[in-house]
What does this fold into?
Amino acid sequence: MTPRFYERGQGGLPDRWIEMVRQTLTLLGPKVLAGRMVREYVERLYTPAAHAHRAMEPQVARELAGWKARVRSAWPSVTVDHVETSVTTATAELGTTLGLRVRVGLGDLSPEDVDVQALSGRVDEEDRITDALTLPLKPVGGPDAEGRWVYEGPLSLDRTGPFGYTVRILPAHRLLASGAELGLVAVPSEEAVEAAGVLMR
It folds into this structure.
């Protein structure tokens, strides 16, 4: 791509470079508009942070700091042990809803301290999920004899083509601006996932 910038046409402009930029903006423009970016920052980060700040009295701040320390200390024991769906074939019909079942270890934490989420969407050529939708999963009953929890939720197959999903665990507290604020996440190992994706028809 660099040589295109230095190749000048008759008018002294990098015509091939300009054409490449035009095509890129045509394809990606709606995804990189500044207005959309600012709106998402406001909705997902700034507004929650502002609400949390207004609620931050000294006692509440101490409570949150203690919770963060406890979560950081316990996080190495947070695991996604097993992921399975009710799908029995390699393909499924558009509009099908699968049952997603996840077995997790929370160590010294409780379900109130975490969000267990499913992320699903179309899969690209490099097996990456694009335009992911996030679905919260809910605990079913209490911990088993090994201290593991089972989470479940519906997974809607609403797109055609290669479709994939994964699961993650994030810290959760009412005063966090985002689940990513602490920089902690737990994801399944390859061995923990029974089916990595479903091919839609």
Observations:
- The helical segments are 2-6, 15-32, 34-54, 58-74.
- The first strand starts at residue 79 and ends at 85.
